[in-house]
Amino acid sequence: MGRSSNLESRNHHKQRKSFFVSCGDEKMFTIKKTKGFSLIELMITLLIAAIIIAMGLPQLRDMSNAIRFANLQQNLISNLLYARSEAVKNGSNTLACASINGSSCSANSTNWNQGWIIFTDDNNNGVFDSGADTLRRSQIIESIASITWSNTTPVVFEGDGTVNNTSSGTFLICDSQATSTIARGVSMNLSGRVRSTDSVVCP
């Protein structure tokens, strides 16, 4: 009886000892598990992330500008081809000129930044007057880009699809904020052919 009691006492002591060891191990494990970044490690991580982002920003900006300029280029080409097709269809002159207000040609005909209008010129006077029929108005909302026409007169498509002597030239699409060297162009020859070109350099 006494021997059995002593055995139970020893077993109980071992269980208590095992319990405390387990608690101690669990406590040690918990401490290791909750250990995180130190302040210095966190600052280094943030610094590296900031450097990577800063290095990538110019490439992201150039990519964004390239997409915007390509869209402007295609928009301008589409409008010029439309003006040419209308001239051929109607057998009369169709003009495209820079316009700020959408109701008259701009005094500065080389600056197409804010848009343009396309109209018929039945009396062949080269002026947007009361007798002109407006075919299309386009407004530009891309303030980041500048569109410059190489001539000082409107684009004149004649009834056979050709352009007059003052209407062959190049439109230059550039970054108005000078933060990018990306440039796009739209050129026209005397036959009235309109095509895109990337072999241009912004001033």
UniProtKB/TrEMBL annotation:
Cellular compartment(s): Cell inner membrane
Signal peptide range: none
Cell membrane in keyword set: yes
Residues annotated as domain General secretion pathway GspH: 74-192
Protein keywords: Cell inner membrane, Cell membrane, Membrane, Methylation, Transmembrane, Transmembrane helix
Main location: membrane
Bilayer topology: Single-pass membrane protein
NCBIfam families: IV_pilin_GFxxxE
Family under the similarity heading: Belongs to the GSP H family.
Designated name of the protein: Type II secretion system protein H
Organism: Endozoicomonas numazuensis
Source organism phylogeny: Bacteria, Pseudomonadati, Pseudomonadota, Gammaproteobacteria, Oceanospirillales
